[in-house]
Amino acid sequence: MKSLWKHLFKLACLLSALIQRSQQACTTAQAPFPKIVGGILDATTINQIDYNQVTDYLAAVGCSYDQGVRGDIATSTIKPIVIAYQQNSYQWGKVFTSFTHDCFNGVKINRLGTKLVIANADNSRMLIVIDINNGNVLTATAFIASAVYDQNRRNLLLLDEGTIIMGDEMKLIKVTPPSISAIQFTVLMHSTIALQSDFAQTYFHVFAYTSSLCMITLQDMASFSRIFQYQTQCASTSPIQLAKTFQTCSYETSPPIDVIVFQEGTRFFRIQSQYSTSTYTTSTMHDPAVPSLLGKGLHCANNDLVYSLMWGSYSGAINSIFVVIVNFSLYTITYTRYLQQTAGNVYHGNIFAVNKFYLSGQDQTIFKATSASFSTRSLKTNGIIYSSMLTCQQIEQQTCPVVALTVNGFTFSATSNDYTFSTFTVTDLSSSLPTTSNIAFSQFEGQYLADCSYQLPQAPHDYTALSSAQASNELIYAIEHTSLTIPITAFTATKASLSIADPIFTYSLNSFIGPAGGVTITAATGDIVIPAVSVLGSSTYYVEIEGKLQNCQTINFLFTLTGQPNTAPKFKVLGSVLAVIPIEQGQFLTYLLPSIVDPDSGQTISTILIDGGSSAYPTFIDFTNSQHIAIQIQPTTSNTVGLYSVVVRLEDGIGYTNYALNIIVQAPLITDLSAFQNYFITNSGPPIFSSELQKIEIITGNTRTYTLPAYFDPDLDDNITLSIDLGEASQFSTFEKAKEMFTFNPLKDREYKDFYEISIKLADDNQNQKYTKVKLSVFIRKEDQKIRSPEKDYDQTAADLYEKQDEERIRQTTTKQLRFNLAKPTKDEQIRLYFQQHAYVLKLVAEKLNETNFELTLNHKKTVNFHFEFIMIQYGYVLLQMQFDNPEKLSLYEETLDLIQLRVNRSLLIQSTQTNYTILKETRAECYIPNQYSPNEVEQMQKMKEAASIAHIAMIPASIIVNFFLQIVMNLIWGMLNDLSFLINLTMISITIPGITSTFMSIVLQFIQLDILQTDKWLIPSFPKEKDEEGNFKEDEGLNDYFEQQGFQSMYTFKNLGSTLIFSFLLIALFFTYLIFKMLAKRGSYAKKVQSYLERKLFWNSTCRFIIQQFQPLLISALINLFQLKFVSVVTLMSSLFTIATIVVLVVFLWKMISAIKFQTNEGLQTQWTPLIEGVNMQSLIGKYWTIITLVKWAILSLTLVFLKDYPTFQLSVVWYLLLVSQILIIKGRPYSSQIENKLSIFNDIMASLYLYGLYALSEPMGRNESKEQCGLALLSLVLATIVVNVIKVLVQSVMLINFKRLIAKLSPSDRVVQLKPPPAEQSQPDQTIATTSMSVLYDDVPQMLTHNHSDKQQTVAIIPEKVTIHTDYLFRREVRY
């Protein structure tokens, strides 16, 4: 009984823990906003803030009198502070202890969001640059300023390359720390109010004030030359007054086109700039009522739409925060009050969306609601940051009626007030940076739980991968409706474990900028309900829906809701005729209706048939089912031959669109079927799916399943076969045939393409078989891409919603939709445009393609010039040659790759004799691009390739001559190539190197591998080409981009080996020749001599030399081919067989070399295995096996490069250990007999290690590297230096080793016997093997034998290796004395 109670008690505890966990899923914590900064002892202020959307950092600067906050004991003093928040949470805070009685009044985060610059208020100005991630001071520059820094002025710029620009009354100060040389630009009588730069930091905008005039000057960033300058009327009477209400923003349509907007209160000024044509258009708008509102922040959403953060009094609300929407196209302004009344001072803030902002100030009292407030812990003011997000304040949005603005009430006047240039010296404080200490954040973080609470999820979270993805963020409602419900796509989340309940979202209205009660949200589904459409009318509103899970995790989505007159639904076809369908009497046909396009949301669309007066409907024409997605046509012999017309109507309850469907009934070709009844087989149509396939979108690191919809065949007795081809999606997808269900599981740490397609085929078993092919589209997104910002250009038209629809759905209509995608971008501004169509269709497409019908944009903003090249159309794609501005700056950092998008701006019709094809307007394709070469680098690479091509041709006869006359020099060259190969192969590590380093090393690698026969120009093109299902040639691709850059551009050995393949077959041919002459040796002396010669060369000196020299290309090519062993064509079959044979031969030969060293004598090694022991220290065990060790080192490197290609960090680690072991072995074992060789070998390994450290600096775990271009240049310099040192060594050795007398004698017909003088009698040493004078003898084919004439008798004697002394061993490895 006790045991039972014990178990029941454990069970109760377990249930209690589970219940407690469920109850603790939501926790009450201090609300993230408003931020309150300050202690209980004295005042703390926040004077200025800045926010960066890229890294989600919010930075605030100010000062504090409070000792508790500062964490010091100083009294009656004030010290400056800086604080950083990320993702709404406190990250770090610093007190600058070396300052006294000073504040920070200025802060600016750089564009990349990695650093910030701060400025103190005092005239003794200090500009301090800080690492935004940890608060560490990077640089500090001091100088004397003209005026105190005004906290209301945005007078700081921090460029990504490190330059700081500061406005100082009538001056602009430009300094690049740690330089002590600064430049100042002065314009008289104009006080600088604000600075701003364009996105590319090519230009910057200077806003200044003088005598009731606002002046804007656009300056070139590099030269500071003036592009334009305008003045316009201001209401402010002083620069101080203007600064309190002045804000700026800009929007870039493309690099040469942008819009600059600035405001003074409710006056708004706009300049539209077209830099390429020097065209500048100005306009102004202002509220004639002149409300008492001050500008506190400005955001340009697009060319015509501006959001302004304002503070003041309006429409009965005093001291309140407003978000103002200014529309330059409609000339309207809409005021919406946010949050609660403020009691203290309010300074400038940041607005970055229509309902998202931060606003700084200082206060003692904070209102949570109209009649509810709480006080800060201090009797004096605390710094405050208000926000519309995650706040304990009631938001209480109240949108006022739209106000019409007065247009162009003010004028712009072009002026030419030039800035004068001068230089001065500043103080760099790098050696004595300002001292800091950490803020005691516990004085204010978490101190207001009781007063300002918020329900937050408790970590660890129950759900991951929250997604609010929608088909479009733009919803359109028809104003003719009385009321309307618009469904949305349900939000999704993934359970962290199986024991957790399924995610259930509760939806609510987070924000609505529009009339009170204008919309409501259905809590269970998130549907947007418009109770009275007439209240909203024809206007645009913003609706943000919040979805909250059971554990309080939330995710939002912002919709743009626009009212407009109803648009009737339409089929996605050109014209008003669906199709003209010929059909014979007695036949049966199913016509699939095209997709329907309707921009209006929330409508139910009906498809109906109307008889055209010929009694065809419903006699032999009707819908196949209640869904009305297909029409069946089955005329009988009783239906008269002729034309029958029916009308297919689409209705949405308000309007309709009619389409003609014309059926031509024809007489059957065979009128008397009685004789063929036993043989006549019909097939009414192919099997089809009952509904469209979904578009799958999945975030990396998540798992998603998708079950195929039901499918049917018009011939009910036909069996249906389902075939699935996962294609490239097989790396993250599986298909369970029994459940007809896909499972997608893309790993978080792997790289994937943005888009994949899975082929699905439905086929019947009819003898006249018919089938349907469809594509399932799968989109892969990274986690940080899962929420689309409505502020960015992600607009989709109705056509985009159906972009990936299967062609078979409209295969019986008059047109077929062509789809395309972008892939395989290169570093020289090229990308491939693929059309998934047959080869003959692509030729028609090529004739229709015109650059004017397409628009190419960079990052959805900048227009990029391009042109089509059709040289590869037979491979299924067209080349786009792009023209970027500053291409070397693109995708410089892998975490922020630049994106290009190709958009069709005009529908194209391609006509053929069989089918008409369309490329619909607004069809788009996107692709991320790698870092690009600069024009100078492209020119340099072209010159290098041309020089390499000439060198390849010259090397063929040169190598033959050198090998014949100067074998020893050739050995030195081979040794040098082997020494360099390890370093050069490191470029195949999967890390992108900026600049031309990879290209240069690719050229060097060709020489190292003796790839001099240029097989890519004559051998590879001769191989038969494979074709895909569409009849296009298949273009081979390498293992990845890094292997392709180094010449391994295929997955097959035969294509990758190049010249090595020719050399391999020559060697194999020599072995066959040897076998033939061996069989003929008994029949003739000549055959015996040839057999002996080949035996001496092939077993094993020449073979060993070949294996060593070509070890790496052979092994790497074979390992790559293992990923794609196929036997479907001649090339794939031969490559696969050659791969297996290569691996076997390399392993066996390596074992044979080890056996030779282990068991053979030195004389035997010198005779048969010379390459194994050339120049090595045979007295050292490591030296004896050094060639084997080198081959093993190369093998490990090759295995690492190929099999760890997706894990560059592991590649770096393995290679680092490999180099470390190699260096230890060289130092300890001294493997070479020559000291210079040992030193050079350790030098090469050290240079490889330095190269590896350079790759570390460029790798992802090291974080953002702002000196990538410099790192690439450094790596190139390192490689060049290594090559130069090795070449100089070979040249010096060659000159010293060549016996020129012997060489001349060898070229002459004289006798080749070396004559030796007899030694003097007193020096004779009969106990030695040979007694002679000291005389140099050139190394020959059989180095251990020497022939000479002595005492009229020719003798051949052996040199005892132990008796040989090396003459100047660090230079003369091949020259011996005896």
UniProtKB/TrEMBL annotation:
Signal peptide span: 1-24
Regions that span the bilayer: 950-974, 986-1008, 1057-1077, 1098-1121, 1127-1151, 1185-1204, 1210-1228, 1240-1258, 1273-1292
The keyword ATP-binding belongs to this UniProt entry's keyword annotation: no
Keyword terms: Membrane, Signal, Transmembrane, Transmembrane helix
Keyword Transmembrane helix attached: yes
Protein name as annotated: TRP C-terminal domain-containing protein
